[in-house]
């Protein structure tokens, strides 16, 4: 099953064309990483998928349905940003439960899903703490937990680890990979870190100046980059 299909996606801000005819399909359960230099359009593309920006032209399909005019909350997606934006006055448990409360889920469902996410993310010792009592990595896990509980079909991550130090980044990366296997979720993950791209991806999408330069498995791109730009990005001579 196709989780996501982007067809002829273009996006302009005023006269500036930021996305130029993007075509891409992502299969269910795939881990797809978008890489490319700062300003090439990675975040804009995620925001178009999420519905936070409208494409100027082209179609977005999620799970086989065209969603161009479906609002973000109804797209079955969850987005994790690099800034965690947790509520400082709420405990870890309440931060994770909030979205489900807003969906008017029954208390029993909320409890079961939050408990499962707490266990999955190893946050059991922290459920009653406030975000300010947590480390950066723990906070990022709470932010991830807050999305898991909503059981999205599609996860979108926008450089979620870029504020963490190297060791934490590695640990959290391993956790995200495990999570993807546990949930059999479809994930799209934006990074400019080539190690992250090479270790996490089933499929890497290399973006440059609003266009897709190449799509392939880490090994395909490493062994057969289409040009010097892709080679330069993934660390192998062309
Ligand atoms: P990346 O995430 O790859 O660094 P972005 O998608 O954030 O790139 O930005 C791509 C380009 O679009 C940049 O030139 C940026 O300045 C421009 N851009 C992004 N959002 C807006 C906006 N809301 N209004 C105008 N220009 C924008
Ligand atoms: Mg960005």
UniProtKB/TrEMBL annotation:
Q: Which domain of life is it from?
A: Bacteria
Q: Which family does it belong to?
A: Belongs to the ABC transporter superfamily.
Q: Where is the ABC transporter domain?
A: 4-234
Q: What is this protein called?
A: Maltose/maltodextrin import ATP-binding protein MalK
Q: Which EC number(s) are documented for this chain?
A: 3.6.3.19
A Gene Ontology cellular component where this protein is annotated is: maltose transport complex
Asked whether the keyword Hydrolase is assigned, the reply is yes
Q: Which GO terms describe its molecular function?
A: ABC-type maltose transporter activity; ATP binding; ATP hydrolysis activity
Q: Which UniProt keywords apply?
A: ATP-binding, Hydrolase, Nucleotide-binding, Transport
